[in-house]
From TrEMBL:
GO terms for cellular component: nucleolus. Its main location: nucleus. Residues 741-755 have a biased composition (Polar residues). Residues 713-737, 765-786, 993-1005 have a biased composition (Acidic residues). The keyword Nucleotide-binding does not apply. GO terms for molecular function: sequence-specific DNA binding; transcription corepressor activity. Belongs to the MYBBP1A family. It is found in: Nucleus. Residues 1-22, 522-543, 707-788, 969-1006, 1180-1208 are annotated as: Disordered. Keywords: Nucleus. This is Myb-binding protein 1A.
Amino acid sequence: MAASRPHVDVRANGNENSTKSPADKQFLDTFWKLAVPSDNERISGATTLLQILIKKQNETKEDKYCSEVTYSLRRLVRGLASSRKGARQGYAIALTELLSKVKEIALEDVFKLMKQELQVSGKKSEEKEYAFGQVFAYLAVIQSGRLNEHNGASSVHILEQLLALSQQKTYLQLICLQGVIDLIKRSSAELFTDHIWPVLKADMKQGWEEVSPNNLALLMVCRQKFPDVVKSKFLQSHYGHADLVHPSNFSHIIRILTKSTLISHPIVHPVCDMLLALVFQDSSKVIQFWKIVVDDGLCTSKHETKYLAFSLLERAVPLSEAKQLRALFSEKLIRSMINNLANKQAILHSAAVKLSENLANAVKNIEDPMVQFAVAKCLLSRPGHVKFDDITKSKTVYSIISNFNCRAVKLYLKWLKKLFHSGTASIGHRMQEPNLEEDRKWICMQVLTLIKNPKLSREEDWLLDATRFLFLHAFFTVDKPEPSIPECSSVLETQVSAELQKMIGSQFYGALGVLSAVSLKPTTEETESEERSTSPEGRNMGTTSSGELWVSLLGHYAQDLLTCESVSCNAEFPGKAQDAWSTMMESVAAIQKKSTAGSAMSSGLAFQLLFLHVGLQMFSEPKQSADILQDLQSCYKRSQQKRRSVKKDQDEPEWVEVIVEILLSLLSKPSHLLRTVVDIAFKMVCPHMTQPALQQLLDVLDPTKSNVQVGQESDEEEEEEEEEEDDEDDEDEEEEDGNMKFTQLKSKKPLTNGNGHKKHKNADSDDSEEEDDEDDDDDEDEEDEDPAMKEQIKAALGNAAADSDGEDSGTDFELDDDAMLAHDDALSKAFKAMSSRSRKSKKEASTIMLHFKLRVLDLLDIFIKRQQNNPLLLDLVVPLLKVIESSAGHKDNQLLAEKALNIYRNKLCKVKRYPHNLSDHKDDIHDTIEELITIAKKAHSMTIVSLVSTGCLFLMRVLRGNVAITDPSPLKTRGQRAMGSEKKKGKKKGGKEEEEEEKEAEEEPAMGLVDVGRITGLYTDALEDFTMHRATCLHPNLFTDLIDRFPALAWHLSDTLTTSAQNGVQLYRRTQACRMLTLLLSKRPYSGSLSSWPKVSKHILSVATLILQGMLGEGSQFKAKSAIQFLHAVQQCAVLSHHLDKVPDFGEISPVLEMFKERSEVKRSGEFRSALDTAIAAIENRSKSSKKGKKKRKKSRKRRKSASTSSV
């Protein structure tokens, strides 16, 4: 060590970088990784350092360690005093591994380095860091496992130093205690007996009166590790009993636990865990220990001891049996937990929250279902409360139940059913009056919460059991026990009230809605691909593990209850409803029979789903559901008949139209379940949609036609709908602008209210009509009077109203002026209240209608996703655009406009697969494009024009992708082949002109079904409207989008653009026309006609020459932006001319451009000079970039020559 010390001193004095090799740099960099906060990087750095040191040490032939090990040892010891985050841990890990792997390092050298590097040098600010450094150094030596290889002197030295350090500073006691415990556990029996125990024995003899928590912890470790050394006789002589946790020692244990909080609070002292482990070794002591030590000792003292009681409960639950948990959750402990959870200002609120979280985690790691259930039961029953979470404003019980396994869920469900019969009087508080009605409400809510809980493991048995329980008690009453039917084995002593049955019914439908989206059928790659190929619509249907629908099992359960004489149905089924139910079950059986035979279609599955769900709705709405079932029956029969064998009446609608009408009626109901069913059924009906059926959906969105009656929504269903919409928005969100703001959108069309009726400005005509019909409507007004309003008016009038009620009263009631004023004030308040109620009802109706339209938009979204090849998809363009336009200007309909825009722009106009074989629909699609451009001409927002452009481009893309079918067969006849050969011969005989024409025809891009003349005419008319009319509503993006997407079509607008650039109504319009022309000229490859290019280029250059000359004239205004735009147009025209090898005459414009160089405006503007130079260079067929390229190539050639000469 002495020989290597000068090397250490040199490196320590700053010559660390004396060697410059890459290995040394890597070696030094590893020390920086040891001090980073990341655990993985620290471990990686320690591993790299150890590999380097072991390799260097193996290369050293002398019997001493190499210089790298010497330097590393000193730096690691010194680094243990660092206060950087993670540094002390990283250096300790590296030092431990170094001592463990490199056996040549003597422990005495480590102790000497500690004295040199970790001694306090007069600065008190460094005292704490150096003290921790010493402790970490001793811990590294202990964990290296080197102490058993040496004599006991090293172990005794470390033990004495750790005990001394723990006595010096309080904050060192726990870590020093942990070091001593680690030393004892790693020591051999001989080492412990001869060296360690003699040092500790004196402190272990102190007895209960003087022993500290640290010494008691060391005593229990010694007793556990070396029972032959620390014998029972020693414990009995000094601590009264050989068993430290004997009941007679409980008072001393209370003192030890209380004293431990002074040392380690809020950290739990190790002695607490050791005592708890000893107690749970003998289960007969647990209850007594908890009652005396925790409940009567810790819970009645200071906040620190209550905190310790919470911590002991966390540790005791995983060790306990189910029968012991009742004692652990004592009354004092539960009361303290409830009070601190409910009050956020309480001192122990954070501790109670931590206890709540840790209890849930502990339950998750427990496998015994009895213990899991017992934890929740202790919180819900006395001394807890059934509404524990409501009282504490937490989710303690919910979190615990969420971690139940399936067997614990079944136990909890069985307990809830038992309480449904007896009530919670047996588990409630003594001072609480029993209320069976409220108890049953809570129980049913808990059952529904179990079904809805997404964290629980889904199992068919308990899910079906819970749903059957709700269904039975919502719609049936068990008169006699019937063990053959589930849930009917016992009779309730107190029957369920009608009000509670209604509430349970809504909970049943909520549970059924959850099951509709739960599929327990196991899926593999083979089964999943098979399901996709056979019935892709049915993959998301709620099915059991056997593939059977949940609703089908509940339908058969309802059939069993209806046919059982021991059970009576609470709902009144008229004869029509009973027949509808029987027919429905027969139809379901027929559909299931076909599905097992493999011949069921998607429509059949849709009918099965609708039959069963509407059938179960009969228990709440018998008459309406019976009518719907009757319509479904007729639709199902017609859907199963072959088309050729059916003679259809012209006025009779298709079955899918009736289905869509039924789906809309179900969608309008305030039921989340029905909305889920409608979505699933509509996915199956999509392939059978017709234009009238689709029009029914569009009529709902049309503000002038939507008069659908929508049911009132409950708060719970609105929340479920909002959650569902948020999930769908997150799932379907696209990269581009899905959500747009429409604050600038305004419409001059008549505004509409929530029901779609126009608001008339002329109120006088309405008043006059009301006056004319006033006499006729007196009777109706009297019938429609609001009773509550009538009572308010009576209260306002007082005695006058009382006398006016009697028609035969002959006395007149007179009021003085003061009384009249008082009545005026009262009547004013009454009428104001009536007006506010009216406004509120209108707002609620408007909100309900908005939500209904949003659900219809969801159906259209489904149709777009699943029927991208359907020609009906094209019928959605204009209606969706009108919905956006009509809704964007209204604050209340902002959400509707945003959702419609998202579907229109990101779903409809961006479909990957579009309809084909549209020869018969060609004219209709062109009519749609014409209608879109008409909308753009009247639009009052650039957003609407942009959406119109998107729709037009989508329709043109569809038309271009379709090929016109003109021949009956692709096979050519002999005559056609002969005509083709004659054409080829004629081509050879013709001159170059015919060849060029033929070449142009071949190069012209195929436009499919696009009527080029009609589309060009529409855009030309729109372009003239934009450039020639001041009051136009159009925007340039309508034309720039066409140029970017279909330049071949846009070339037909070149003449109009050139003319508009000259004759536009405003400078802005002329400049925009020139900009669009420049954009068109820049498109490559050229898609216009080669033969017409000379004419087009001549026209462009003549207009540009005329405009630029006009700016140079005396007295004319010099418009820089407009001139720059025309220069760009000239440049692009020249570039394209040279590219096509059809160069026009630039003789007229070149002098004009040279004259511009002399203008002061050009000299002052860098942008103008650049545009002018670029235009002149393009005319001369040269560019700056080509010159730069030539210079670079010359320089590279010179470099290569110089390199070759130098090498020679």
